[in-house]
Design a protein that fits this description.
The protein has ten helices and 17 strands. By secondary structure, the protein is of the alpha/beta class. The structure holds alpha-L-sorbopyranose. The site of alpha-L-sorbopyranose has 5 residues, from helix 8. One of its GO terms (molecular function) is oxidoreductase activity.
């Protein structure tokens, strides 16, 4: 069986998630499309990188991302850095002929994302953006229902992504609150996950009308800009710096196929942890999903008799998407790790088969255009249209 060497850049939260997926993918998907080999890992210092290599099982380590991109044995470059580094690394990796998986959002702005999309298209490499939630089996099952026409013509989508890790004003000013590094706040960090789901399930978004708010205008400076996701609380008298991104976003959506929708994102909603939800209404039924109960899909069909019509709960398991590779009994539990393992499988399958994989950099670019439109709509207090992307998906 073929082995594919991976070079991972970024040994933080996402580095951990991706490393787990490389190790575990063949344990779930067997025969695997190819076996991932953890070749080289990069982090901000030589010490951090060496620790990452030991912890996550990589042969080599470096503090210079160019060594990863130029490594003759590396076939896949995995970009798990803060957002401001994505574009330069991706363009260099494409020029070196490497296949690429890049964490979301693809870039800080649509303009930056466009350069990345063009680079991978010109290089003819396989490219993927790590919007992992569409690979939750219950979400893929929702897509199956839709594609089979089980809920008829889609008329509306209501999506939310609500978290609370930044609700505490004393949680530090990590890179996620700085426009120069992150590009935007809740919009890019978590709103883009729901935009990906909306496009996956309903279709292209053609216009937005949004409101953004920044609730905590400054936060305590954090040593080294580390990404503590609300866990590190500073003393009240610590020096502070400005937050120049959105904390909260609400937008209306227009879809090209005539459906309408709404989307909300915040990291300041006390009590909400990873409340990524959608509710879809069609002419023949409805589907509801909540990631906090991710083994379940709620479905309701108009064709059910009036005396028994209502939502029923389907627990995902072996008969459902990816089910045979996962656990043998429904409701044993799908986790964040499994979504990353499935993502890794689909990427490797695309590489081995020399084929397209979604979401690719074209999707990432279009999502960046929608994000930019959301920022513009809030600033101008008006609807902003999003033209369709002329895509050449997946590979080249
Ligand atoms: C923080 O909001 C975060 O880590 C996001 O950046 C991830 O994409 C999300 O899946 C979990 O929350």
């Amino acid at each position: 069986m073929r082995t594919i060497n991976v070079g991972l850049i970024g040994a933080g939260f996402m580095g951990k998630a991706h490393s787990l997926a490389y190790a575990a993918m063949p344990m779930f998907f067997w025969p695997a499309p190819a076996v991932p080999h953890r070749k080289i890992i990069c982090d901000v210092t030589e010490e951090a990188a060496a620790e990452g290599a030991q912890r996550y099982g990589f042969d080599e380590s470096t503090a210079d991302w160019k060594r990863v991109v130029e490594h003759p044995d590396v076939e896949v470059v995995d970009i798990a850095t803060p957002n401001h580094m994505h574009a330069e690394i991706a363009r260099a990796a494409a020029a070196a002929g490497k296949h690429i998986i890049c964490e979301k959002p693809l870039a800080r702005t649509a303009e930056e994302a466009r350069t990345m999309y063009e680079a991978v298209r010109d290089a003819g490499v396989v490219h993927m953006v790590a919007f992992n939630y569409r690979r939750t089996p219950a979400v893929a099952l929702a897509k199956r229902y839709i594609d089979e026409g089980a809920i008829g013509e889609l008329i509306s989508f209501r999506g939310t992504y609500l978290q609370d890790w930044s609700a505490d004003p004393e949680s530090p000013l990590s890179w996620r609150f700085q426009r120069e590094i992150a590009g935007s706040g809740a919009v890019g960090d978590i709103g883009t996950h729901v935009i990906d789901l909306a496009r996956y399930l309903v279709g292209e978004i053609s216009g937005v009308n949004a409101m953004l708010k920044t609730w905590v205008p400054e936060r305590p400076l954090s040593a080294g800009g580390a990404d503590q996701l609300g866990t590190g609380r500073s003393a009240g008298d610590a020096p502070r710096g400005p937050v120049d991104v959105d904390d909260e976003m609400i937008t209306m959506l227009r879809f090209s196929n005539g459906a309408i929708g709404s989307l909300e994102a915040t990291r300041n909603g006390h009590g909400r942890n990873n409340f990524l939800t959608f509710e879809l209404h069609g002419t023949e039924g409805s589907i509801v999903f909540n990631y906090e109960r991710r083994d379940e899909l709620q479905v309701c069909f108009a064709s059910d008799g009036a005396d028994r019509k209502g939502f029923r709960t389907v627990y995902t398991g072996a008969p459902h998407p990816y089910g045979e590779a996962l656990w043998p009994i429904p409701a044993l539990g799908i986790g964040y790790g499994e979504t990353k393992i499935i993502e890794c499988h689909d990427l490797f399958q695309a590489i081995v088969g020399q084929e397209a994989v979604s979401p690719d950099f074209g999707d990432g670019y279009q999502i960046a255009r929608i994000s930019d439109a959301i920022l513009e709509s809030s600033a101008t207090e008006s609807w902003v249209s999003v033209p369709p992307l002329e895509t050449t998906p997946g590979r080249g």
